[in-house]
Design brief:
Blueprint (H helix, E strand, L loop, with lengths): L4 E8 L4 E2 L6 E2 L3 H9 L9 E11 L6 H13 L6 E5 L5 H11 E2 L5 E4 L12 H14 L5 E5 L2 E4 L4 E2 L8 E2 L7 E3 L3 E3 L11 E2 L9 E5 L6 H8 L6 E6 L10 H12 L3 E6 L12 H9 L2 E2 L5 H14 L3 H8 L11
Parallel strand pairs: 1-4, 1-5, 5-7, 7-8, 15-16, 16-17, 17-18
Antiparallel strand pairs: 2-3, 6-14, 8-9, 9-12, 10-11, 12-13
Helix pairs in contact: 3-8, 5-6, 8-9
The structure holds aspartic acid.
Length: 339
């Protein structure tokens, strides 16, 4: 059997953190801790691995779109050298990074598995060791050709998952798409759910970090605060986090007028539900019919993280607003159900 070799890319996050006077902080030198902890495991059953660290390591709450370029660059540059990749990442924004890498690394022929933990590997009792070991096995030995998150026994499509628990060890779920696999007594995968193989089409574009804004709808929302949000001329697209199947207060005419004028100036509005298990049906209720009239695009059942990253990706790679609108409705990498 040929030896498999994977690359671990450590970005920071709880998995490699240590306690400090100000709370948990990322510390370098994780490679040594991993090697130490894995020496108690059945090392021969693991793929060979190299490990690199981001400089500086981050708490993923500090993630910035530039970090996606760094991550994608590492995978693209070393793509031929390794059989798979594990990205160790903080849980706070892991769903954003996994979503974005799925768009940047379309047509992957190898696994790119994000994982992390709720308790650091340096603690006696932790969820880090199992997440790490299983992610390594998935990246080294399993025919997964896409960006996934592995966490607490669940293998999830990267652009379908979200962090659903702040403290529970089962922190991630995929509310609108089945799990790609689960690790219990055995690792069981569901290949019928995997993306169809296709040739790699990797892109590592420059992002404008201000280009996408998120606007949660809430009772009493007022036109002025919405106008302030979109007065930043760098904002090109706004995710409306609407109620239920895409509803919002249509009787607030000043608010609707601000949306309508902004849409007329070319700002693109993308409708995503505040519900975790979601679908958008604009016009199901009269209060959302106005969105069809303004030209708001339905985000269907996409997670807010996938919607945010898809907008950033398309704004950075498409040639025209018409192309962006058209691509938003297309299933690029399994982020929405194919109509
Ligand atoms: N704040 C941490 C981070 O996202 C939380 C975690 O990793 O669980 O980096």
């Amino acid at each position: 059997m040929t030896t498999k070799k994977i690359l671990l890319i450590h970005t920071g996050g709880t998995i490699g953190m240590q306690a400090s006077e100000r709370g948990y902080i990322p510390v370098s030198g994780f490679a040594q801790l991993i090697t130490e902890r894995l020496s108690h495991s059945h090392h021969a059953a693991l793929p060979d691995f190299d490990i690199i660290e981001l400089h500086p390591l981050i708490d993923s709450a500090n993630l910035h779109p530039d970090h996606w370029n760094t991550l994608a660059e590492q995978v693209i540059r070393q793509y031929e050298k390794y059989d798979g990749f594990v990205i160790l990442h903080g849980t706070d924004t892991m769903a954003y990074s996994a979503s974005m890498l799925s768009f940047m690394l379309q047509g992957l022929g190898k696994p790119v598995i994000f994982t992390g933990s709720q308790i650091p590997l340096s603690e006696l009792r932790n969820d880090a060791l199992d997440n790490l070991i299983t992610a390594m096995l998935l990246a080294g030995f399993h025919p997964v050709n896409e960006v996934c998150v592995y966490f607490n026994g669940r293998l999830l499509r990267g652009n379908r998952c979200c962090k659903v628990k702040a403290t529970g060890l089962d922190a991630f779920d995929s509310p609108n798409f089945p799990w790609l696999g689960q690790a219990g007594l055995h690792i069981e995968l569901h290949p019928r759910l995997f993306l169809a193989p296709r040739s790699p089409q990797f892109q590592n574009p420059t992002f404008n970090s201000q280009a996408v804004a998120i606007l949660p709808i809430y009772p009493g929302i007022n036109a002025q605060s919405v106008a302030a949000l979109i007065s930043n001329t760098d904002v090109k697209a706004v995710i409306l986090r609407s109620y239920g199947v895409g509803n919002l207060p249509d009787e607030n005419s000043e608010f609707i007028e601000v949306l309508s004028q902004a849409a007329g100036r070319g700002i693109l509005f993308f409708n995503i539900s505040q519900c975790i298990q979601a679908d958008i049906i604009q016009g199901q209720y009269a209060c959302s019919t106005v969105l069809n009239e303004i030209g708001v695009i339905s985000g269907a059942e996409m997670t807010v993280e996938a919607a945010f990253c898809k907008l950033h990706y398309l704004l950075a790679t498409c040639q025209s607003p018409a192309e962006i609108r058209q691509q938003l409705g297309i299933n690029l990498v399994g982020e929405i159900d194919t109509p």
